[in-house]
Amino acid sequence: MQYKKEILVGAGVLVVLTACVAGYFLVTQKNIEEVPIVPIAEEAVLSEVVGTSVQGRDITAYHYGTGDTNLLFVGGIHGGYEWNSVLLAYRFMDYLEANPDAIPDSLRITIVPSANPDGIYKVIQKEGRFGAIDVPNTDQSIGRFNANGVDLNRNFACKWKSTSMWRGKTVSAGTGAFSEPEAVAIRTVVEDTNPIAVVFWHSQSNAVYASECENGILPATRTLMTTYASAAGYPAVDTFDAYEITGDAEGWLASIGIPAITVELKTHESIEWERNLRALQALFAQYK
Asked: Is the peptide bond before 204 cis (omega within 30 degrees of 0)?
């Protein structure tokens, strides 16, 4: 089977777009230019489409390494609202492709860089393909939800309710747990890879949060949180208590016994690469 990686205009893995402040923007979408990946070693990156969005855009998982222990990383579940989480995921992919020896032999790394491609697409200007991102002057809710208007991080099977909260506002959580194809895609990649731990990248609370559902924080989750937070220099927080959250992906993972954390970048602009790289290297050391 030939695996492909989606890219936008130009050569290479990343496409640099003009964005607010000094940041850059990365986006994947269906029907854009694709180039084949030519495996140069057994460790070459493989990609697979694990689902499609409401509007038919591919949701792709990328796999690195050949070990039996899988670590899963997910960016962009809140789409264009948290576009820098997508960019961070792609920066991580660049790092792994440039440094394949950084992956311990026992590990396999899976990355879903853009879990809400319709939300990304919604904030892209200039013919819907690329252009400037005017985040500061845009309603912050634009691009957060999927094309059905559902907050995807309220659509999972942990304490699910038809409506949930976001910053004091009521948001749709779908018609049932996993009613949205993007949530199904995340469930699919979890079932396919059986990860030992999962990291979700978000912004902008500047902290690492543990996950829990009905039975409290798993001991392995607390270890995962502490390792990442300590290496990156983020505060480690057991529970997000600013408002009630139901149906979150991390909670669903806790309910099925898989440690998961939420890494909240400090702003909506920066990927804070160096501190996150330290955390990723610490996870490699922990799980090898």
From this structure: yes
